[in-house]
Amino acid sequence: MSGNRLAWALSDAWVVTKYNLISVPRVPEMLVFLTIQPILFVVLFRYVFGGAIETPGLPYQDFLIPGIIVQTVAFGGITTGIGLAEDLQKGVIDRLRSLPMARFALLAGRTVADIGRNLFSIVLMVVVGFVVGFSFHDTTVLEILAGVVLMLLFGFAFSWIAALIGLSVPNAEVAQSAGFIWLFPLTFASSAFVPVDSMPDWLQAFADINPVTVCVNAVRELWLGVPAGDDILWTIVWSLGLLAIFAPLATARYRRTSRA
Amino acid sequence: MGKEAIEAVGVHKRFGDVEALRGIDLAVPTASVFALLGPNGAGKTTAVRILATLLRPDEGTITVEGFDVQRQAQEVRARIGLSGQYAAVNEALTGEENLEMVGRLYHLRRAEARARAHELLERFDLTDAARRPVKTYSGGMRRRLDLAAALVARPPVVFLDEPTTGLDPRSRLGMWDTIERLVGRGATVLLTTQYLEEADRLADGIAVIDQGRVIAEGTASELKTRVGGERVEVTTATPDDAPRAAEALRSIADGEVVVDPDTATVRVPVRGGSRSLMDAVRTLDAGTVDVADIGLRRPTLDDVFLALTGRSAEEVDEEREAA
User: pTM for the whole thing?
Assistant: First the structure.
């Protein structure tokens, strides 16, 4: 790819990102998904389950916040999946595919817009966390930011999975359920909400290798000083690995896909 | 020669067991309007999607503005505009933002994209709605915006897939005006339609498509000659009156007058449109024929089909559903 074409490709992706972010505040469902839902989750988990779940060495609100944020960013890509399924249904993808824009720009633009939305969610949930008693421990500003970047990378990888789902299903409703359904077991059978060693052995085995666990543990190390071995590194490996698989798959799907 | 804006030779496309296109040849001269006319499922949309680089043909070669749609797809994309039967616009963005975004993706500079968006919004009578999200637009407004989006980059070739399907009669007339003006500035337009009337009004050349094949090609008047052009149809009160009516109407006929005694109907080919109809009424009124019904019939897609295939477009639909 020549320098000029790469510059255009980046410009195309940026145009898609920009107009995507412009449209966010205008879609009520999106605003609820982005604001009310995370707030509700933090408050409910903190006060409904908080008293019943033992988290040795940490108050539950501190244990909870990294877990619930990782869950939220993993779910964040669903907006991309639903958006793509809608675009496909309405012929928007056909229009875009008939333009001289770079082939990966639509998907890159949308998933990068997810990063923007996820950043908003993270900041919001940390603020709500403070309100319900969360605090950072044994950390530095740099480590806090590293935690944020790590979660954005993790969420970015999940956005590409959602993109592939969105391009492979017949409509937005299916994109929504297909986007959510596999994320529930993945996010709940992890260290996000309860210590993994409270689970039965067979589930522990799954939870231990679950990328959500790996990412949550990494953020707990960065934000709360809870040692997590190589989980920071493994979070990066998981994220890049998922990207290496799903970004090309989704792009290939986009090239071929069109409303039948 | 060689000045065809769109040239397709031997295009085949199969979806599983369905042969959507079975060898389509097209040649559309630069700055002309060409219509693909056919019933639902004839392969019109598939053909447009292949010409617009959205689908790859299984066989055949196609050039648009001299570029191969398969090997030089990006060059083709920079020179075409596509507007489909759905309003492919972003609901949450305003009309202005939609056009600016498309302009930017055609690689216009920011200021240029903005100026072009304003120009088009004005031309398509959308200036008042320019800063409202598209979700507040009516169906007709969305389709106009969608067409505007196809024109943002002033493409030399424009594809319009059923541009008026689903529009009310007033919006349809507005769309026809717009398409006519589009041609005035020298663009090549390929449109698909199910309405002979639409192809007749807009297109210089028409290809009739049935079951993935071009079954007839020519100008609207050439096709109509094959089908039989417009005619006055008179149903008399009794079958006995029919021959007398036919006799009286021979003076205004442009061709052979046909009498169907079973239905007491007389068919009179004419050329003068509603003027001929009034002539017929006056002629019959002067005589002593009792008329049960009289009307002007223009050939429809159904007539074209009946003449070309021996089946009506409706039967074609039913066959497809049965298959």
Answer: 0.83
